């Protein structure tokens, strides 16, 4: 996670997450249901103005649940 200040009220936050991560809830806290949250850490209301996906990574060596064979992307 890396935050870059834009001005006194705004910053850019870059995150690397796993599939299924609720990024918006991580930022605003989902009415207190998501802890920790950016808003909770900063002690203020936080929200997203823009949300961009800058890339999707794949692991070539992942193992499946049935005997350790490689998945489709990394066939032996």
Strand order of the largest sheet: 1-2
Number of distinct helices: 2
The best one-word shape is: globular
User: How large, in whole angstroms, is the Cα Rg?
Assistant: 17 Å
Largest sheet: 2 strands, antiparallel
Q: Strand portion, in percent?
A: 5-15%
Quickly give the structural class: little secondary structure
Q: Main traits of this protein?
A:
2 helices; 11% strand; 76 residues; 14% helix; two-stranded antiparallel sheet; little secondary structure
Write up this protein.
With 76 residues, the protein is largely without helices or strands. It has 2 helices and 2 strands; from the N terminus they run E-E-H-H. Strands 1-2 form a two-stranded antiparallel ribbon. The radius of gyration is 17 Å and the shape is globular. The model has no long low-confidence stretch (mean pLDDT 83).
Quick summary:
By secondary structure, the protein is low in regular secondary structure. The chain has helices spanning 23-28, 38-42, and strands spanning 2-5, 11-14.
């Amino acid at each position: 996670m890396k935050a870059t200040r834009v001005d006194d009220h705004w910053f850019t936050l870059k995150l690397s997450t796993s599939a299924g991560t609720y990024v918006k809830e991580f930022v605003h806290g989902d009415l207190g249901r998501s802890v920790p949250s950016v808003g909770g850490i900063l002690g203020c209301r936080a929200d997203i103005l823009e949300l961009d996906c800058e890339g999707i990574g794949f692991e070539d060596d992942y193992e499946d649940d049935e005997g350790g064979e490689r998945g489709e992307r990394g066939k032996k």
